[in-house]
Amino acid sequence: MKDYKKLFSALCLSACLAACSGGGGGNNTPQNPPRGNQPPQQTPPQGQQPQQPQQPDKGKNPQPQSPESGKKPEQPKLPDSGVNPQQPPKVEAPQPEAKAYFTETVNKDGKNKDMRWNSAKINKNTLPVYNIDFPDAANRKLFKEAVIVGVPSYGIITGKGIHGEIGVYKFDLLASEGFYGYYSDLDKNNNEIINFAYGFNPELENKNIAENISSIYSKKDGFLYKAKKKKSPSDTSRDFGYSRGDVNIEFKNGKITKGEITSTDGLLNLFKIENGESINHLVITPEKDSFITNTDKGIANVHYLNSTKDANDNKYLVGTVDAKGWYGLLTAEKQ
C-alpha cells in the first residue's frame, strides 16, 4: 500500500512539472517577445474606446489622380507694370553734361573782372547777367538783380523817368555753340558800367590756323566799343552808352590787305585793322571819327572758330580789346 502511494505522488509531481514548463513538444519560444525600440502604446482614458485605423472602402479601389485631371492651382496675379516680361526694361542713357565754354569779358577796369563769369560753368543757355532798375529819377539811385538768361536775349529797363527803352543786356549766337554781346552792371559807386562778353565751346576752336590764310571776314555791327572815361568832366549823362561799327577784314597769304571798321551807315572810318605779331593778334588803331585818341592802339587777341566740331572752316573770329582809354569786342564771319 505504501508503494502505491509513492507511485501516485511521483505521477502528480511529473504532471505539475510538465504544466509549469509550457508543455507540449518542448517549444521554448516565448509567447510575447520583447518590442525593442517601439514606442509604448498609450492607454486611452477611462471611458473612451481606442481609435481604430480607418479601413479603405472594400468596394472601391483608389486610383492615382493624373495631374491633368485635377484642378490646377491658381498662380498669384502680379501687378501690371506696363513692361513686357519678354523684354528687359529700357534704360535711358544718361545725358552728357553741357560742356563749359571758354569765356572772356572786358570793361573799363580790364578783362575778366566779373567774378560771376569767372566761377560759373557757362554755356549759351546759362549767361549770368543783371537786371538794372531805375525806379527814382530824382536821386538817380540804381538797383540790380542777378539773373540767368539764354541766347538770343535782350533785356531792357523802363523805369520811372526813363524816356524810351534802355538795353541792359543783349546776346546773339556765334556759330552753333557760341555767343557774343554785352550786359550792364553797377560798380561800387552805383555807376552803371558796360561789359562786353563772348564765349564758345572749346571744341569749335581751330588753334592751328595757317599763318598764310587768304580769306575775307566781315560783319554788320561786328565791333562794339566804349571809351573808359566820359568825353568831358561836365558830362553828367548816365554812362550806359556804347558804340558800334561794321567790320571788314581781307587776308591774302596771311597779310591784311584791307582792314577797316566803319560807321553803320558806311560814311565814317572809325578804326583801322592791321597785322600784329601773329595771325591771332590784330592791331586796331582809332581814327578821328571814333572820338578816341588815335595813338591809343589796342590789340585784339582773336580766336578762329569752326562752324561745327571738326569742320575746319575757320568760319568765325572773335576777341576782345583792352586799350588804355577804351575797350571793345570784335566779331566777324568768313564770306
TrEMBL record:
Keywords: Signal. Residues 1-21 form the signal peptide. Residues 31-43 have a biased composition (Pro residues). The keyword Signal applies. Residues 44-56 have a biased composition (Low complexity). Residues 19-97 are annotated as: Disordered. This is Uncharacterized protein. The lineage of its organism: Bacteria, Pseudomonadati, Pseudomonadota, Gammaproteobacteria, Pasteurellales.
